[in-house]
Amino acid sequence: MPRPRTHDDALRVRLLDRAGILLSAEGTGALSLRRLAADVGTSTTAVYSLFGGKPGLVKELFIEAFQRFGAHLLAVPRTDDPAEDLIQLGLAYRRSALADPHLYPVMFANIVPGFEPDEQVSREAMIALTPLIEVVQDGIKEGVFVEVPTNLVVMSCWGIAHGMVSLELNGYAPEELDVDAAYERALRANLTGWRTTI
User: Fold this and answer.
1) How far is the C-alpha of 73 from the C-alpha of 131, rounded, in Å?
2) How far apart are CA 107 and CA 67, in angstroms?
3) pLDDT at site 197
């Protein structure tokens, strides 16, 4: 009978999730391999076996974060209405952030100072954002959105989503605010500015 694998993907994911929690809650000083291993109930040997060390762990954390984020956006079905597709991508953006709030700042809040994404990390980030870029390109091509550089619309939509999500995750949304409704309304208000017809 073969020996069971102890350093499996489930352990890998638990380590990455815990690393994200430590970084987002306490900063880079909290991320020691010894503490990480102890928190997850494994050994530093397992961490080294899975990631090769702390730099490899951080790189894998970025990759995991962008892959989960991208999965939410890629799951949004494309229709013949780029405007509504753009809204649905914005809603998926928030769902991703709320599903993995410990990974959101890894991607977008520079909580690992000095980290330079390599080609693989950059590729995963681009894959994650591709649905947004493609919907905007299609909307411009089809005359649904005004004819401006794609990146201008993409950054505007991303900025609205990021700003609203960041406020929510950091506890700055007023208690009486219906965040679901406010978030979607902000997305739709932004969209209105990019449509050729209102």
Assistant:
1) 7
2) 11
3) 82
Specify which residues 145 forms β-bridges with: 195
Domain boundaries, the chain: 61-194
Q: Which pTM value belongs to this model?
A: 0.92
pLDDT above 60 for 1: no
Q: CA triplet 61, 66, 72: central angle to 5 degrees?
A: 130
Burial readout 154-163 (b: 16 or more C-beta within 10 A, e: otherwise):
bebbbebbbe
Query: Options 3.90.550.10, 1.25.60.10, 3.40.50.800, 1.10.357.10; which CATH number does 61-194 get?
Result: 1.10.357.10
pLDDT tens digit sequence for 39-79: 999 999 999 999 999 999 999 999 999 999 999 999 999 99
Q: Where are the alpha helices (DSSP H) in the chain?
A: 9-26, 33-40, 44-51, 54-74, 82-99, 104-108, 119-141, 150-169, 179-194
